[in-house]
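Tokens in:
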């Protein structure tokens, strides 16, 4: 356990985080499963649960304001348009983007990365050029860059990591050469929980003239994100990771980049004019939002961001730090259990393996006690290969999780050997 995790367990004068009050906002957490046992939901890195405020916002939109946006002149359409564009302003403020035009609604982080890879990076790549990613990336921040590199004859290079699951940045300058056209890095590892020093990485890349995309899918549920402070060129967010609905996300892009990028997809509402001879395109962000967007999803995401912003983030951070410390210490005490990823800077993710038990067996057995956690390679196969394991069991926490739930997890894991014999 790190010094930071030990410190999180020491008594504090800070007012305690009222986790039970927060849990009351999330109706799904009241479920009972597994023969009437309370649900212990520890798969937050895969998707978070939704507060009633988000559910109500989406229901209200479909019950009272549902219409297609932008092109109608009737009142209902104008109301829906105001709600949708108001959601963009909420997202701008959440990320501290300079203006709302720098926020593009996408389906999620995966689409945001693909949009940048195809529209920003691909036209700039020539044979022999390079794109840099890190060894701990999710597949969605590897495969899109591989596709454009293969098509354009460019090369993918990788920032290595150490045995604790931290990026080895001492050799970063050697990777950033005159042919480097892009650096893409995760803010927080989904498989390890590592928090990367993004501001430093961006500064070092920009010193070499290299633009940076940051995968923020796992960061926004745990950290306050300020894209202008980070200095990145692009930042991606998945709505369902930050207590919002599925099928909606955000791509932040510096306006000068978005204005120079060609459209990623063609269709309605992303054009200025269309003829059979020539089409001219709308300004960002409309240029990248072809067709009818996920209007209800954007409204639900705005409600989620409003909910998150209203929390006491100092208290949230302290509570999540205590959960991580407690889980790390409790699970480490189980004979034969090894935690994968022990970085000094982590969020509430504990990935582990257990001697004699496959990760899928772990997930199946703890489910009998009502514990929901993720097993597998977590769409991070290169990271699993680095640690020499085919898969891990991953418990991932949100601010609505409790110490009692960690005790249930630990007891369920401790009895696995008995079950397997």
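Residues out:
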């Amino acid at each position: 356990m790190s010094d930071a995790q030990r410190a999180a367990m020491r008594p504090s004068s800070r007012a305690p985080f009222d986790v039970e009050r927060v849990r009351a906002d999330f109706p799904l957490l009241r479920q009972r499963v597994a023969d009437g046992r309370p649900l212990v939901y520890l798969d937050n890195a895969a998707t978070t649960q939704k507060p009633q405020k988000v559910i109500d916002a989406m229901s209200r939109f479909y019950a009272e304001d549902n219409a297609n946006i932008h092109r109608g002149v009737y009142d209902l359409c104008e109301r829906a348009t105001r709600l949708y564009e108001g959601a963009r302003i909420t997202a701008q403020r959440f990320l501290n983007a300079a203006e709302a035009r720098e926020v593009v609604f996408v389906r999620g982080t995966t689409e945001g990365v693909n949009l940048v890879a195809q529209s920003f990076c691909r036209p700039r790549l020539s044979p022999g050029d390079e794109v840099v990613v890190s060894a701990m990336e999710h597949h969605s921040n590897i495969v899109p860059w591989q596709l454009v590199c293969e098509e354009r004859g460019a090369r993918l290079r990788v920032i290595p990591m150490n045995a604790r699951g931290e990026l080895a940045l001492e050799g970063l300058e050697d990777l950033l050469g005159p042919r480097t056209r892009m650096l893409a890095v995760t803010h927080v590892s989904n498989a390890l929980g590592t928090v990367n020093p993004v501001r430093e990485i961006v500064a070092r890349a920009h010193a070499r003239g290299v633009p940076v995309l940051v995968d923020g899918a796992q960061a926004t549920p745990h950290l306050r994100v300020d894209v202008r402070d980070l200095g990145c060129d692009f930042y991606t967010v998945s709505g369902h990771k930050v207590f919002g609905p599925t099928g909606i996300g955000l791509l932040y892009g510096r306006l000068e980049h978005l204005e120079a990028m060609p459209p990623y997809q063609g269709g309605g509402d992303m054009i200025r004019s269309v003829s059979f001879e020539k089409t001219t395109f709308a300004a960002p962000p409309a240029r990248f939002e072809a067709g009818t967007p996920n209007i209800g999803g954007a409204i639900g995401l705005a409600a989620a961001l409003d909910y998150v912003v209203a929390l006491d983030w100092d208290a949230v951070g302290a509570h999540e730090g205590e959960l991580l410390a407690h889980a790390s210490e409790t699970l480490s005490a189980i004979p034969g259990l090894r935690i994968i990823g022990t970085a000094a800077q982590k969020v509430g993710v504990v990935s582990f393996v257990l001697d004699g038990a496959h990760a899928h067996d772990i997930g199946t057995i703890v489910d009998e006690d009502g514990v929901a956690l993720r097993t597998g390679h977590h769409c991070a196969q290169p990271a699993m290969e680095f640690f020499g394991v085919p898969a891990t069991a991953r418990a991932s926490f949100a601010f609505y999780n409790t110490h009692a739930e960690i005790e249930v997890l630990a007891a369920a894991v401790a009895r696995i050997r008995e079950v397997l014999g």
